[in-house]
Amino acid sequence: MKSFRIAALLFVSAIAGIGVAMAVTNPGEEAYEAYAVAQLSEQLEARICEKAPLFLEGICGSVLSDNQSWLRDLVQGGTVRRNYLFLSIYETNLETEAALDRVLPANLSLSVDGLPAYHVETVGVFRQFYTYEVRQVNRE
Q1: Strands (E), 44-116
Q2: What is the model's pTM?
Q3: Integer-rounded Cα radius of gyration of the chain
Q4: Of 15, 21, 65, 110, which residue is 20 to 30 A from 6 by alpha carbon distance?
Q5: Phi and psi at residue 9, in whole multiples of 5°?
Q6: Beta partners for 95?
């Protein structure tokens, strides 16, 4: 019976230790924003810059790196954090049309209707982020 109590005490201590470690290492909003901006930059470079015409090839990457604050604003404006003490769930809605409207000059008339919007869900735990859902949102 004594060995059962010791085993139970060790088990409860281990669970409590893991819970404390999770609570202490639950990443905050600033860390998520840095992660999301890095992921967004990487995706934009892969999907846009690599397909850009040759005359834009050299400047596409620098345009992305020069506009990190704009990407951060895009992430901040579309993110909701649900904090569960041990972990956080981040839901980010990236509205492409609204984002381009803010960044393009007013006199530049480009038709941006129909550009996709995305919904991204990420869990933050142990100072790491794991994106588990990315889906294109159909607007009607």
Answers
A1: 79-83, 88-95
A2: 0.78
A3: 21
A4: 21
A5: -65, -40
A6: 117
